[in-house]
Amino acid sequence: MSTPPTVWQDIARKGLWQQNPGLVQLLGLCPVLAISNNVVNALALGLATTLVTALSSATVSSVRHWVPHDIRNPVFIMIIASLVTCVDLAMNAWLHELYLVLGIFIPLITTNCIVMARAEAFASRQPVREAAWDGAMMGLGLTGVLVALGALRELLGKGTLLAGADKLFGPAGHHLSLQLAGPDYQFLLMLLPPGAFLGLALLIAGKNALDARARQRQAAAANPATLANTGTTP
Amino acid sequence: MSRHATHIAQPVTVSRVMLKVLAALLPGIAVSVYCFGPGVLVQLLLATLTALGAEAAVLRLRQRPVAPALADLSAVVTAWLLALSMPPLGAWWMIVVATLFAIVLGKQLYGGLGNNPFNPAMVGFAVMIVSFPAQMAAWGTPLAALDATAQLQWIFTHTLPAGSSVDAVSSATPLDVLKTGLLQGGQDVAQLLLQPRFGQWGNAGGEWVALAWALGGLWLWQQKLIPWRTPLAMLAGVLAVSLPLWLWQPAHYASPLFHLLNGATLLAAGFIVTDPISGSTTPLGRLIFGFMVGVLVVVIRVFGGFPDAVAFAVLIMNMAVPFIDQTTQPRVFGRKGGRHA
Questions:
Q1: ipTM here
Q2: What is the DSSP secondary structure assignment for residue B106, as one 8-state letter?
């Protein structure tokens, strides 16, 4: 609590927590809800999105002085689409099984709001290094939400964790998969879309509760006299 | 208004109303126990304990007073309605999970009694039927020779004493048998109904349970605790769809009587669509709400994927209630038009 945070720390804190794309900005919900039925899918799509967001923010930032303001959005989308195509081809080549599972959601990263939002709101008016860092942190923030939601749904829905990790980490990934319930166990609701909505709502509620508690503690630390009142709020 | 007006005999409290609702369920419970055995009581007990525990836990988390909310008995009503809609010999964890979803997600997360847009019992039921369709379809065989200890053993350990047949604890409901029979083809409704599972009026044993629900509902109406509009409109809705279908092709569609006496139709008419919180509250709205629930019940039963449809029909119409209530505001005395009262 002594030195003010550097610009890098500030960007990281915003991307990972304060303005988390999945929990606060609620951007890019389509893949969050659709792909979060297990950890491996969630992690893979999250990392792919992170890569695209970081690279596209850096690119958008580097050409920001030459892009005419009126047609900036088509230009940004062209940049993002080219990067997504690269990621799409790379995943098809090196992570083919996973590529088949994620299917349409890889090309759809192009239309993910969070990529466009960072290009428009941050990268188009900031230097390259800050923009790349911001894109990476926002992407990681989204990845964190995806993995947490994926873990929740996979655990409750199928009783496993990291099932199919070999698709992402190669043959060694087999050892990462955990089977925590009987092979017959299935709680279909958590695997279906309602489970995604319920899980995301619980994550958002959890974050808000943590923030509220932190604020309360801060207020109490700043003014110990109010401490007596906070305990007895109705 | 004076609180001690002489013409008011007793103050109407929530817990008094809820107590009467519970009393109205007793005839149906008695017939259920006769038909399906003491397993029904175990389900009721498990549901009640889970509901009270979950309600107390969430209220503590929300830092609200616990005792008054438990004493109003609304959680017990939810628990009983849920337990009576679930398979009487379902495994113990099913009713526990269902009640947790009903009380925590369906009721308390919306702000507790009076704030829930959906009927909590139906939320719990829908969660279970979507998640565990196979287990939810396995009903006890009515009047099966299975003693109390065997039933308890089945509910808690999923095993049976030697000599008992699994048929006694997992028979499909008549709605289910009819649906699968018609889907497989080859037999028409009349041939399918000859199976012993259907009994005289299409639901061996179950029809008496259904009539006992109707009895309880009538008593609640006589006590002026439920309006007549919603249940009657619901039954009219059931008839409005099932009667034309049956008259058109009796070989393919079951009779209106079958739809009335099967599944949760009469339980819903007396106790579920009449829920004053999640249902419509205007006079015309009650007619629309009840009628559409009845229509949807038959439409989903006949054309949908699940054998019974009361939970889905009620939940769908719960969603429409704010709109129905807004557009059917009664005219305020002395003004023209009802919309902007």
A1: 0.75
A2: I
